[in-house]
């Protein structure tokens, strides 16, 4: 295909679906938790420039289970599970920054049961383990 610099289409508004795709790809590409600020910097080159747009897209991705917010890091990660069922638990390595996402139905069940007994209305549930991953433990 010949290169025609002038044939480049003018920057147009991207659809919400396009924005979500760009952002989830950026999250996956990062392979580690990224802050909203970093994400905004990363997607700038893809025509997604307005921070509120990025925040809205992130919220949609979180609602759809395609991304997660790590409260303790104030950062975002792409979901590791193609078919998400329920809440995820995260093990975050403080040394290398690796995040492992896993399901722990029993932990969620125990917390939900407590909330029910205590008549506590849960707004959100975040389960994050902080420490050292296997690789970092091995290398000291
Ligand atoms: Zn997930
Ligand atoms: Zn590590």
Gyration radius from CA atoms, angstroms: 19 Å
Poorly predicted residue ranges:
none
Give the CATH superfamily: Winged helix-like DNA-binding domain superfamily/Winged helix DNA-binding domain
Shape call: globular
Lateral strand order in the biggest sheet: 4-3-5
Description:
The chain has 140 residues and is of the alpha+beta class. The chain has one domain (14-138): Arc Repressor Mutant, subunit A. The chain has five helices and five strands. The chain has helices at 16-30, 36-43, 51-63, 105-117, 134-138, and strands at residues 67-70, 75-78, 88-93, 99-103, 127-131. The strands form two sheets. It has a three-stranded mixed beta sheet, with no helix packed on it. It has a two-stranded antiparallel sheet with strand order 1-2. It is globular and about 50 Å long. 19% of the residues are buried. The mean pLDDT is 86. The structure holds zinc ion (ZN) (2 copies). One zinc ion binds at residues 93, 95-96, 98, 132-133, 135-136.
